[in-house]
Amino acid sequence: LGRLPYSRKLESEADQIGLELLVRTCHYSPSVAVEAMSMLFEGTKRGGQQFEILQTHPADERRLLQLREWVAAAEDKRAALCPLH
Fold this sequence. Notes:
Blueprint: H1 4-25, H2 31-43, H3 60-81
């Protein structure tokens, strides 16, 4: 149980790195990360909610909220890296 917050932190870090890689491609708006994650979560919903404290990943809602918070900065970074987009 003591390792669960650590693994959730790693999952959040992986989400942020994925967003960064998406920005560097210059092919997609960072906002598509939120759309893709939403679709993923919708397709994997199971019956009943589990307590986040028992999950190895952050709660879906928390991950989407974090992604939305990161998107504005990612859009700015994309504009600087990819002037033609």
